[in-house]
């Protein structure tokens, strides 16, 4: 079995290791190597069936983080440990899938026995995974040991941090969206390495690295449950068709009254963030897990974004603030001492960004969701409005931008004509690929003809804005700014 290097002590750590909870998840990872959904059967079902949604509520007034009561530190600590140190699902793959998979790689890999560190790094790079900032049995963030009913740890499965754990400049963060993940490749190759085949999928899990179709996974899992959570043999047709998405950072959750990109779910809903488990868990098990995930939610709401690590021109940033407050604050709020966040959901015809995520969620799905335990306490909003204008805290760190990741830099968010149609995502999250001028990821625009010459690995980093849900239109609010004002706004955004 593939083992690892030892973890050094954690700056964060959770549970008993945790010294400085506010840092939980922000420390430099230490070592480690290299998951899967609920029961394989269910994901299988997910990938083969079709349909989907996200839920919400909304409407009430919104408080900025500054006015919020501080989360209970004991709950934060429990939540941190529950999220990062515990597994909940049975294994999907055997332990050795992690090393067996290398026989499927195009190029020779370091030998896992002779060079475990080298192999672990190659594994992470291939699938877009990161070192965990917490002890994880030598596995990368997002993979985890499976847990049997009697508590025995065995095999491999996935967890929340597959998508919600990222890295930046060599530091791993819990709650930063994983902008490198190639989920399709990971699932397919781990499965093939055991001589099994993935069932044909009825939807695209991801076409580009870094985006993923978590929404459709939920839709399919839910289509296999009746309102009372009894299992269905045939999926309920739900008519939802959701696209792949960029993963939002968790550190904004505390400010939000409503969540998910369409803002249709009340951000207090604990059950909605447990959808990942519905393929394996019974209703009774979900109920037992709810208090644990209440703590997880408290932990998520305690997370803070990292600070911009490079110099900032304070004078230009101050000018930028004035422009921002005139042009942007009505939707994105204000920051600093008297921070406010309006929690607005902007109608599709005003925001103009790719509509597929908002329109792809069918009423049927929302109704079905609301008829189950998930929607009992906080039913999702039956009305679709558009997209929620997110808080911009730590925005420098969460590139690419917009719900589908179609704008690689802040400059392209604010000058819509300069968004690339076809481009390569960076090969890693090291700062050498970070663009400090335009703020975000450097990208290589490509001509159609150049695509066929790409190596398979680079091809998987190709973002094609003409694909379903990946359109790069809309959010034209920065277009009218002069280049100089735009630079100053970007300078200001670095301070958030
Ligand atoms: C397969 C990738 C994936 C996994 C696994 C995953 N998520 Fe997510 N998560 C997403 C994506 C994508 C979104 C955005 C969905 C949308 O708005 O349509 C999201 C949204 C969220 C949000 C809302 C954030 C906001 O500000 O609106 C929370 C909270 C969340 N996830 C928690 C969790 C938890 C807890 C788990 C594990 C139990 C989990 N997620 C597992 C991909 C994932
Ligand atoms: C009318 C409301 C509105 C105005 C005005 C507005 N925005 Fe936005 N903004 C939004 C919405 C809604 C989104 C999410 C769109 C999506 O993801 O499809 C967004 C997204 C963004 C994002 C990407 C966020 C992320 O996490 O990916 C940035 C950055 C941003 N806006 C900056 C600005 C700046 C700077 C201004 C002023 C020049 C501005 N916005 C003006 C509504 C607005």
Structure notes:
The chain is globular, with a radius of gyration of 21 Å. The strands form six sheets. The protein has a three-stranded antiparallel beta sheet, with no helix packed on it. The protein has a two-stranded antiparallel ribbon with strand order 1-2. It has 496 residues and is α+β, with helices and mostly antiparallel strands. The protein has one domain. The N and C termini lie far apart (44 Å). The chain is built from 17 helices and 13 strands. Bound molecules: heme C (2 copies).
Q: Major beta sheet, specifics?
A: 3 strands, antiparallel
Name the helix and strand elements from N-terminus to C-terminus, one letter apiece. HHHHEEHEEHHEEHHHEHHHHEHEEEEHEH
Low-confidence stretches: 1-67
Distinct bound molecules:
heme C
Percentage beta strand: 5-15%
Helix content: 25-40%
Q: How would you write the strand order of the largest sheet?
A: 12-9-13
Mean pLDDT value = 87
Number of helices: 17
For the CA atoms, what is the radius of gyration?
21 Å
Care to count the β-strands? Answer: 13
Q: Structural class, from secondary structure content?
A: alpha+beta
Distance between the termini: 44 Å
Number of domains: 1
Shape: globular
